[in-house]
Specification:
TIM Barrel; 11 helices; 45% helix; binds orotidine-5'-monophosphate
C-alpha cells in the first residue's frame, strides 16, 4: 500500500520545513531572467527552479495557466516539469483552481489525480464555487490515488473578502468532515491567504493542511503567517512565488531564507494541533 497524501506531506514538512515554492513562468519573470517567452524559455525556467529548490521546499507548485498560454507545447513542458519534480522527490501541487458539476469534476480528477495520467500530481487546487458537494468525487479520487486537494477558502487577494467571508465556514466544515479520522491529517487542504488582516474562522477541527499564499510580492511576511496560523503551525504550508523567483541567482538562497524565517516565526507561537 502507498502512503497517503497526509503521510507524505507530514514527512516532507518534517524533513524540509514549512514552505511551498511556486513555478510561475510569467512573461515578466521570463524577461527578467533573460529568457524568451516561448516553450523553450518555460522549460529552462522550470528546470532551473526544480534544480534550485526541490530538495529544500516541502512542496513545489507549478501554476498551470503560465504553461497553458503556449497551448499543447506549454502543456508538454508542464508534463516534463511534473515528471522532473516527482523524480526529485518533492511533492507537486498543481495550481489549476478547478471547479465544476460532478460529472465534469470527474474528468478533471482523471486528468490531475489519476495515477496513470500524464499530468498526475500529488495535489491540485480546487474552487468550491459550485458547492462543496460538487467536489466530493474529486476528493474520493484523491483518496483512491493517495493524492490531495486544496480548496479555496479565503484567498490572498483583497477583493475576494466580501464574497468568501460568506462561504468560507462552509468550505472549512466540508473539508473537516472529509478529513475526519485521517492520520496524521486528511487529504483535503484549504487555501487561506497569508495576507488576511485577521483569520475570522476557526481551523481547530480542520485536520488538514493549510496552503497560505501571499508571502513577499503580495505583502505578507513570515511573521504574518505565524500571527494567523500559529495555532495550527504543524499543518500550515506558507507559499511564495515571485519573491523567490525574481532573481535566478538568488533563487535557492531566498527559498532557504523564507523557509527558515517561516519555521522560526512559527516556532515562537503556541501550537494547538500536531
Ligand atoms: O492557489 C494559489 O496558489 C493561490 C491562492 C491564493 O489565494 N493566492 C495566490 O496568489 N495563489 C497563487 O499564488 C501565486 C502568487 O504568488 P506570489 O507571486 O508569491 O504572489 C500565483 O500562482 C497565484 O495564482
Amino acid at each position: 500500500m502507498n502512503d497517503s497524501f497526509g503521510t507524505r506531506l507530514r514527512a516532507r514538512l518534517d524533513e524540509c520545513g514549512p514552505l511551498c515554492v511556486g513555478i510561475d513562468p510569467s512573461p515578466a519573470l521570463l524577461h527578467a531572467w533573460g529568457l524568451d517567452d516561448s516553450p523553450a524559455g518555460l522549460e529552462r525556467f522550470s528546470r532551473t527552479v526544480v534544480d534550485a529548490v526541490s530538495d529544500v521546499a516541502a512542496v513545489v507548485k507549478p501554476q498551470s495557466a503560465f504553461f497553458e498560454r503556449w497551448g499543447s507545447r506549454g502543456i508538454a513542458v508542464l508534463e516534463r516539469t511534473i515528471a522532473d519534480l516527482r523524480e526529485a522527490g518533492t511533492l507537486v501541487l498543481l495550481d489549476v483552481k478547478r471547479g465544476d458539476i460532478d460529472s465534469t469534476m470527474a474528468a478533471y480528477a482523471e486528468a490531475y489525480l489519476d495515477r496513470g495520467s500524464p499530468l498526475a500530481v500529488d495535489a491540485v487546487t480546487l474552487s468550491p464555487y459550485l458547492g462543496f458537494g460538487s467536489l466530493e468525487g474529486a476528493i474520493m479520487s484523491a483518496v483512491a490515488n493517495d493524492a490531495g486537494v486544496f480548496v479555496l477558502a479565503r484567498t490572498s487577494n483583497p477583493e475576494a473578502a466580501p464574497l468568501q467571508r460568506l462561504v468560507a465556514d462552509q468550505v472549512l466544515a466540508g473539508a473537516a468532515a472529509a478529513n475526519a479520522g485521517h492520520t496524521p491529517f486528511g487529504p483535503v487542504g484549504v487555501v487561506m491567504g497569508a495576507t488576511l488582516p485577521a483569520l475570522e474562522h476557526s481551523l481547530a477541527d480542520l485536520n488538514g493542511p493549510i496552503l497560505a499564499p501571499g508571502l513577499g510580492a503580495q505583502g505578507a511576511s513570515p511573521a504574518d503567517v505565524a500571527r494567523l496560523f500559529g495555532t495550527v503551525r504543524h499543518t500550515v504550508v506558507p507559499s511564495v512565488s515571485r519573491a523567490v523567483l525574481a532573481d535566478p541567482k538568488r533563487l535557492r538562497a531566498r527559498t532557504l531564507s523564507y523557509r527558515d524565517e517561516c519555521a522560526a516565526q512559527l516556532a515562537r507561537r503556541p501550537a494547538a494541533q500536531k
